[in-house]
Amino acid sequence: MEKNNNYLETDKISGEVQKEVKEGLSLLNKIDDKIVSFFGSHKISKDNDYYKECKRTALELGKRGYTVITGGGPGIMHAANSGATESNAKSIGLIAGLLTKEKIIDPIFTQTVSFNFLFVRRFILSIKSKALIFFPGGYGTLNELFEYAVLMQTGIVDIVPIICVNKEYWKGLFEWLQKNPLKNDFLIHNTKDLGLFHFVDCLDEILEIIEGQQAQFQAE
């Protein structure tokens, strides 16, 4: 329990958390562009189809004036930041300081911030974003996906599109949600709660969702 006990040092921890929140919000408040955030596996290589599609998506969104934010690591994160950099858009990396397997060397960021507290990092990753784009991933990706969904479901934060790329990849998970939690009325409702998620297979579908949402927001 040594690691857990370190987090019980109240004064020290609260001060460090406050510092990270302040630094992250200060960064966000300096960005006037629309923001999109990318999530997905840190393990995929540059020749992976997901990597290529993610980079192409970020490149196009960057050309359209969006700032791209990721967790600042390899894999999908690297793809998104690389695409943003090639489009000359802002490319932000919110780096997990304690996750040694997520280190990268390539200078593909216009700015970075390092976080020791993952809950602060997840908060900064999403709180100003106009869309959250999820490529396939593992535990970390699923953790982020459902945390953001819960915050929107409960009305704690504003609803923005949660875009899940590759319908076949996500199909089994969401069929399970329909057949189990939804069927048994475990506080999941089909039209409202599962409707938070958008499933896509290509860049055009992603752009249609994001740009459509922006047009609706401007009309209101």
Descriptive report:
- With 220 residues, this protein is an alpha/beta fold.
- It has one domain (2-219): Rossmann fold.
- It is 49% helix and 15% strand.
- It has eight helices and seven strands, in the order H-H-E-H-E-H-E-E-H-E-H-E-H-E-H.
- Strands 4-3-2-1-5-6-7 form a seven-stranded parallel beta sheet, sandwiched between helices.
- Strand 1 (34-39), helix 3 (49-63) and strand 2 (66-70) form a beta-alpha-beta unit.
- The longest helix is centred in the N-terminal third of the chain and has 20 residues, at 10-29.
- The termini are far apart.
- 35% of the residues are buried.
> What structural category arises from helix and sheet content?
alpha/beta
Portion in beta strands: 15-25%
Count of structural domains: 1
Task: Report mean pLDDT, rounded to a whole number.
Answer: 91
Number of β-strand runs: 7
The low-confidence runs, each spanning 5 or more residues with pLDDT under 50, are: none
CATH architectural category: 3-Layer(aba) Sandwich
Key phrases:
alpha/beta, 220 residues, single chain
Write the layout of secondary structure elements.
Layout: H1 2-6, H2 10-29, E1 34-39, H3 49-63, E2 66-70, H4 76-86, E3 91-96, E4 111-115, H5 118-126, E5 131-134, H6 139-153, E6 162-165, H7 167-182, E7 197-200, H8 203-219
Parallel strand pairs: 1-2, 1-5, 2-3, 3-4, 5-6, 6-7
Helix pairs in contact: 3-4
